[in-house]
Amino acid sequence: MALDLEPTYHFRFHPVHNAGLKHAKKLTEESSRMLEEVLEENHNNHHIFTTTEDHKGVYFHNHIAHHDITIWALGANPETIRSQHDRNSLYQREAMTIQETLVDDMSDPLVFKRCLGREENFLNFCRFFEDEINRIGYQEVLQQYLVNGTAVADDILCRYVHGIIHIGMAMEFKQARLLAEGFAQACVHHDWWYTQYLTGAEKLSKEQVEPALPLSACVDLARATEKIRNCSSPYYHMQTRKVTGEMCLDLEPARDGVLKNAGPELTRVAARYRVDPNDLERATAELQNTAVYLTAGAQRPPYACTFDFFLLHAVTSSIGHTMFLAEPSLTNKQKARLLEYTGRVYLMSYAGQGCPEIRLDWLASHPSKLPNQGWDEVFERACYHEDDGHMCKMIRCFAHAQDTSRPYDHLPEFRVKQPLFLTAGIAAIDSASAQPMDGTKHFDFIRGAGFPEAWERFPHREQAAVRAHL
Predict the structure, then answer these.
(1) Origin, by domain of life (predicted)?
(2) What would you report as the CA-atom Rg of the chain, rounded to the nearest whole angstrom?
(3) Rounded Cα–Cα distance for residues 146 and 160 (Å)
């Protein structure tokens, strides 16, 4: 059955009708009205990028919509939603002007293609996709601009890794305007190396030179392959501007490390992750379970449990595939292809962070800072955490992955077993500090969990336990 999306001209949330796949037990109308208000402000006032590529080397993203929606779903009151939104608005860039005639001309394939990869066209693309959703419906938009295999769709498919969270949340919470934003976000990226890697892996996978492997086995194989394990460097996460000391990524881990130093080797591993179109429900749960495996499991004794900023995006993007799985307009082959593309991006990200050793045993032994924490308590704590939404998104997706993994808990490829999901959620919110961010810079998350140097600023577990009781 097709989703009954809200109209493209506004955001509309209801505590029951579109509360999402995983949410707190009681949501309110008051919080829903506040959420709609702040989402409208963000749409009209802010760019999708918080930084410029010239300054940072890459684009950093505006996560306000994800944060606001997630804490609403986790039960935040109106005051908390407003406070979190206003704090994260302080470092956003202003929205650029919509060019109405350009939007009209985007229906010309020549103009559309020329506009791709250009940040000034974000709101132009938003308006274009709103018009397209109104004209042909969201299902046909998914087909023409993401999955039907045409040149245009394949182009955006390789860019959608940056819009997948937005697109997934739009479908989960039934928001057509958010869906337009997600497609617009994908369209203004120009990360050509994703296209090179994903198309290469897909081509090799069709040859079926080597037998297929579960995604978790591909993660293990990547770590076991010396060239992949050593293809990146902690230096990528230590780059700063000479004058201001601002963090930058002139050298990008995937582009300049992984694919330059181990492109063929990683492509060979990624090609072995192949999804059977007749096994989609299990395969979707497997993707989500493996996202938790490589994120929550990337620990390093004797350090307190800490979570990698880049790897956590595997978790937060995985929930959208539950919506793709349920979408009747997508064929089984299209759903399988989406899973393959997403899983292969996870492998590239894992390699970029140094292929950290997976230590589920260390995660399982995490000592909770507070007694008797269940999901309700973890959700509430996540609502008040003052970052830009990465923590609460990750925690909500841990809880969702627990649900989807439950029927397959007995299978070996489901490495994260049922008791560990809540432990991961507790460990995540326990890792939160009193100052999670300064502008766009995060302090709570590690970058490059596979590198010993990256852990040096974090406390050992015993030290963290002492601090928690002071």
Answers:
(1) Eukaryota
(2) 21
(3) 8
